[in-house]
Write a structure and sequence with these properties.
The structure is a homodimer. By secondary structure, the first copy, chain A, is of the alpha/beta class. Chain A has a single domain (6-347), classed as TIM Barrel. Chain A has helices at residues 11-16, 37-45, 48-52, 55-69, 124-136, 150-159, 167-175, 177-201, 218-224, 226-234, 253-259, 272-279, 298-312, 332-347; strands at residues 74-75, 91-93, 99-101, 143-148, 205-210, 242-246, 263-265, 284-289, 318-322. In chain A, the strands form two sheets. Chain A has a seven-stranded parallel beta sheet.
Chain lengths: 348, 348
Amino acid sequence: MHERPAWYDSAFMRAARREAVEYTPIWLMRQAGRYQPQYRAIREKHGFLELCKTPALAAEVMLVAVEQLGVDAAIIFADLLPILEPMGMDLEFAAGEGPAIHNPIREPADVERLVELEDLGPLEYVMETVRQTRAGLDPRLPLLGFAGAPFTLAGYAIEGGASRDFARTKRLMLTDPAAWDALLGRLARAVARYLNAQIAAGAQAVQLFDSWAGCLGPDEYRRHVLPHTRSVIAAIAPGVPVVNFATGNPTLLPLLSEAGGSVIGIDWRVRLDDAWRAVGYDRAVQGNLDPAVLLTNATEIRRHAKAILDQAAGRPGHIFNLGHGILPETPVENAVALVDAVHEFSAA
Amino acid sequence: MHERPAWYDSAFMRAARREAVEYTPIWLMRQAGRYQPQYRAIREKHGFLELCKTPALAAEVMLVAVEQLGVDAAIIFADLLPILEPMGMDLEFAAGEGPAIHNPIREPADVERLVELEDLGPLEYVMETVRQTRAGLDPRLPLLGFAGAPFTLAGYAIEGGASRDFARTKRLMLTDPAAWDALLGRLARAVARYLNAQIAAGAQAVQLFDSWAGCLGPDEYRRHVLPHTRSVIAAIAPGVPVVNFATGNPTLLPLLSEAGGSVIGIDWRVRLDDAWRAVGYDRAVQGNLDPAVLLTNATEIRRHAKAILDQAAGRPGHIFNLGHGILPETPVENAVALVDAVHEFSAA
């Protein structure tokens, strides 16, 4: 007889399956990061990509964060973009600046330069981060893997970095749908392999980040993005919860639901109750506190946490989180106050 | 007997009153701008603020754009931020960079530094731009005035420039609502005076730009922003159409409607038919083509224009526009193709 692993009945995994929980589970996007003195100390000695590529350090920063905050899930410390390196993109994180890709895809013909990701060998450090984080983590807590969604990865590959309006990305998408679909298809297959490898290495759930999908309207998302996100999610190992998260445009929520995912991630631009109705009650939801609320004080944080919990009350399947990554200027004690407030109010 | 001015029965003014039109009126946000060779030639000789403060030039760039595009309305060439100068903010537009405010509001006590705008004298160049643009414009076309909405102006005054997450703005808003309301109240009174002065100088309609409101969720917008936007709109001279425009979050649309405005501006993150339903059919709507579509080609532009017109069909009160400002890399002939397509399809 096979005994169920301890994490199987964790609050996070139960909520992801929409089962009743004793308290609402919470974790925070970017819970290991610049807002923590310990993280900043490590970053003084190691570059960002170096940290991502050193599993012992990557595991350490996450385990410190989980311990410090008392959250109900860990997520591997990694980045959306390194998957593009073995696909042929020349990636750099310059100090104090955002990521830069030095050989971006600019014309339809450039799509060929993004090669099929056949061999996950160059990303082995990520799987090793999964193993080491899992090994150090409380067995009762789940570990999440993650990846960028095809649209967001394409946006980086085409723009070469952050962008305000994604003009180049949209121009390629609208003027050459065949090249676009070839590009997103290649990215979708790479992301699915990458996430399944993280699962094989020991992750209990995975999250897809479509951080930039909010620059699209619903018709463009449906036509040019949804099929690719759907193909990623359909390829994930059965039984593993997928959190499908996009930010920036609440009108996409029903389409995220259509694309798949047992949990839909919600940002703060919509009330959680309205979001859940739009997503459908056959899904769990994750969210959705504005990260800026963590810059205030315990009273204000508790008031906002309570309001969100009230919107989710009476229905299993809510995982508390921010609506986007924690801000670097967040006081650590405020993040702790949020975790405590969510546990306290939801257990009551 | 008083004869009605020629612009009164223009397609724009009729649509703003939700009266039947022979074709859908169109104008484009930032229709005078960097995408035009004529504008770039003027900007080679004059700084941006200098251009804004030289009514003859400001009128010229707009009149050239109206002529070149064949649009159905002009809007004064001006900027959201100069209103902050006579209120005590030290504003600069450095070449190649966004605007910067060198003495931003950082603490609640700083709010006092933003002084009540009693005297519109320092903004007289804007009223003169209204007069000169009106004088040069086809009498059958309306001229719009405009201003930033209180939230967006507060965001600039607090952040000191563009921002990704508006962390300082939200912190002030959430931690000191009294200081926040004092700040937005002062801005709202200033904006109302400023818009009414533009109307007195000869503008037929006005648009409020809440370019950054999309960083807020609906509960925060309702509590901290809506009352101030409402007080601006309530103070506008009766009978003058107000376009109430915000970008970045379609869930705010019913609240924009609550705040007021006979026309609600819509960005491209939502279908126009869904947006109109959310706004209420007792309002006209303006929008909502993704500006990135103008980077493609005539075929694609016509396809998108048709789709939006179809969503608005059968109901008077649609003014065609982009969902945000025209992008600098837009080919002029593509903007012309859009105007022609909207006129052609809607007259058919």
